[in-house]
């Protein structure tokens, strides 16, 4: 049975007339320019086979990572968990994620992307299901830590898989499409989670949040198996590509590697450690990740505090900000690419989000005002993060680039691990999130200031293409 339909590619009918089977170089040459219709059809065919399932996996990944936000609305009452316990558990996810990211990537290099994605998805699905049994703060925290361990390496594994199919000139578009999984998870996840908790609470004697973890833990297991059985490891093993198409893709990828010329070397991490630009970007990423946690893990709590009590209503309202966020992200991203301006869109988004965080700390009792502020904040988060992700590869160059980008991500992950614990502790201590939101706003705004003052405009000048 086919997972996706197959539209005949023009290359199937005419490739042999222009490509000698024994010559990958000629196959690559026959592809012509990037605007070659035959080449476009070939990579469109590959994208149609690969991207829907891979994107769905990423959506499910973020749903299982962030569903704790709406589950916590009920767990606090059922288990007597404080916001401090919740914040610590959210942070422990990122601790496990950071600790096992490198080992997972090392295993990825040995066993390949398909087996890596199977291992990761099945394990995180099982851990999500087992979280339903966590009835003490210790068990709950352990479950979140293990979920971070299980999910570590998924994103690099997915990008590595894309690199087996798309040369760099086309991979950027596929990566951008893959990134849509984040806002899509925000649109799909909260209403789905709210509906599960609203509909299944008390069934078979289980709490609503227990059903949430059980039912949302099953899809990654099934998707992991689907990836393993439906995805070939590389183009040469794809039964849905003709021999000529396989040779063409292999030649494209080989030419892509030859063009890179081995610029990335083993000393890239050491060079990155000595490069002050890396620390500037890392500090900016701390602000971005602090904002990400405020959006991803505390939105349901903020909506509940505004006076919305039903979990289904909370889930439906929580889906509104990502809808606006995705639309604004696409507009800002296109504007940034057209004008080649990176600093101000990214920094401006940080400033807008910081203002929204401060305003949220004063907007008590008005659900409408809270939803508007959350929507603007989420739009700023998505658009700013999208533009910021394009800066490291432009600003960093040479042997330090690869290690530097990894370090920037790691520094941001430390902020992701500490900011939820800070917010939870403040909520438990003061009885509200207000002070925590204001401190988060300061961190986010500081990231924008560092971006503008620490990165010269001329350092990000790009040539129009």
Give the arrangement of secondary structure elements:
Elements: H1 10-14, H2 24-31, H3 37-66, H4 68-79, H5 83-111, H6 113-130, H7 137-151, H8 154-163, H9 168-179, H10 181-200, H11 208-230, H12 243-260, H13 268-273, H14 276-305, H15 311-318, H16 320-339, H17 343-362, H18 367-395, H19 400-430, H20 434-454
How far is it from the N-terminal to the C-terminal residue, by CA? 42 Å
How big is the Rg? 23 Å
Write down the overall mean pLDDT: 85
Indicate the CATH class of the largest domain: Mainly Alpha
Strand % is: under 5%
Assign a percent range to the helix content.
over 70%
CATH architectural label of the largest domain: Up-down Bundle
* Run of helices and strands: HHHHHHHHHHHHHHHHHHHH
Task: Give the low-confidence spans.
Answer: 1-34, 262-266
Shape: globular
What does this entry look like structurally?
The chain is mostly helical and 465 residues long. It has 2 domains: 41-261, Growth Hormone, Chain: A (Up-down Bundle); 266-465, Up-down Bundle (Growth Hormone, Chain: A). It has helices spanning 10-14, 24-31, 37-66, 68-79, 83-111, 113-130, 137-151, 154-163, 168-179, 181-200, 208-230, 243-260, 268-273, 276-305, 311-318, 320-339, 343-362, 367-395, 400-430, 434-454. The chain is globular, with a radius of gyration of 23 Å. The model is unreliable at 1-34 and 262-266 (pLDDT under 50).
Condensed summary:
This protein is mainly alpha-helical.
Please supply descriptive tags for the structure shown above.
transmembrane, 2 domains, 465 residues, Growth Hormone, Chain: A, 78% helix, mainly alpha, MFS, disordered N terminus, 20 helices
